[in-house]
Specification:
Elements: H1 2-25, H2 33-61, H3 70-94, H4 98-119
Helix pairs in contact: 1-2, 2-3, 2-4, 3-4
């Protein structure tokens, strides 16, 4: 089962990377400072949506001690929230990459469960 999920993660990584590159290439020239800041936010959020897949593979396949540190998990949480924004945006607003966005939302839920279990030291929550 682990191999099958990793193959799905690799396919999602390729498709989301393609989506990231397309979004960067079709960015419009911002007309105001707010538009410029929003463009930067979207680019950073798209980058985080690609990093979510890397985080999922790390958290799903490996059980390293440093992955459970609170500071690193705070960074993972921020990356997860930004990536979740893009996945919801793709799924409900743009209707682009629907299947990939749905799979990535499941990956986001897994990441947040692992992060919350490490924040609260919940050993009974075994998500495999």
């Amino acid at each position: 089962m682990r191999i099958f999920i990793n193959i799905i993660a690799i396919i999602a990584f390729i498709i989301q990377s393609f989506s990231f590159v397309l979004n960067v290439l079709i960015q419009k020239k911002p007309e105001s400072t707010i538009d410029s800041l929003y463009s930067y936010f979207v680019v950073i959020a798209y980058l985080c949506s690609v990093l979510v897949i890397v985080l999922f593979v790390l958290l799903y396949n490996f059980d390293f001690k440093f992955l459970k540190t609170k500071i690193l998990n705070c960074f993972f949480c921020i990356v997860g929230f930004l990536g979740t924004y893009i996945h919801i945006w793709q799924l409900f607003i743009h209707n682009d990459f629907v299947l990939t966005s749905f799979v990535l939302l499941i990956f986001d839920i897994y990441i947040f469960c692992k992060i919350l279990s490490s924040f609260f030291n919940i050993n009974d929550l075994h998500i495999q």
